[in-house]
Amino acid sequence: MARTHRPLTACTSHQTSAQKRAEKRKKAALCMLGAISGVATVVSHIAPFFVKQPMHTSILTGQAWVEELLRGMDYCSLVYLYN
């Protein structure tokens, strides 16, 4: 019967306590970076729903409002506004 050999891997039982602490710090830093990245993604997605830009803030009404629109906007803006 032929003997099978295990693949060569680093034996963690021979690490010093300082090496183990360093490895834990690396893993913790990587987890923290992932968490921060996830939070940043969620915040950037949700922010537009809470930070709103005021629209249609003209004090004018009726004919004066329509004239202000016609003077201050180009054709593309008017098409967007009325569609």
Give the helix/strand layout.
Blueprint: H1 17-50, H2 62-72, H3 75-82
Keywords: Membrane, Transmembrane, Transmembrane helix
Transmembrane segments: 29-51
Region (Disordered): 1-20
Total DSSP E strands: 0
Distance between the termini: 82 Å
Overall structural class, as computed from helix and strand content, comes to mainly alpha
Supply Rg.
32 Å
Average predicted confidence as pLDDT: 79
Largest sheet, strands/sense/barrel: none
Strand fraction band?
under 5%
* Low-confidence segments: none
Order of helices and strands: HHH
Helix content: 55-70%
What overall form do the CA principal axes indicate? rod-shaped
| Assembly level | single chain
Region (Disordered): 1-20
Transmembrane segments: 29-51
Keywords: Membrane, Transmembrane, Transmembrane helix
Gist of the model:
This protein is mostly helical. It is about 65% helix and about 0% strand. The chain has one domain.
